[in-house]
Design goal:
The protein is α+β, with helices and mostly antiparallel strands. The protein is built from two helices and two strands. The protein has one domain. The termini are far apart.
Length: 72
């Protein structure tokens, strides 16, 4: 099952063997110049964090305009 952007739901990406083994997750998801709101939701981000081992790092690539900030 996918959302309106075609992204897989987090439970579809999770596999018992993959849980808590990632040392690094880099999120670089854009539709044109915007990050889909579903990818910034608490549920999505907690799902990604749940794939990290205790010392893991979640990096989220952004463009200032995609986060509602002006380009100062």
């Amino acid at each position: 099952m996918s959302d309106e952007y075609g992204f897989k739901k987090m439970h579809e990406l999770s596999h018992p063997a993959a849980i808590k083994i990632c040392r690094l997750i880099l999120m670089d998801i854009f539709v044109q110049m915007s990050i889909p709101p579903s990818c910034l939701s608490e549920t999505f981000l907690h799902g990604l964090a749940g794939l990290l081992n205790p010392q893991g790092t979640l990096l989220i690539n952004t463009i200032p305009e995609s986060m509602g900030a002006g380009a100062d």
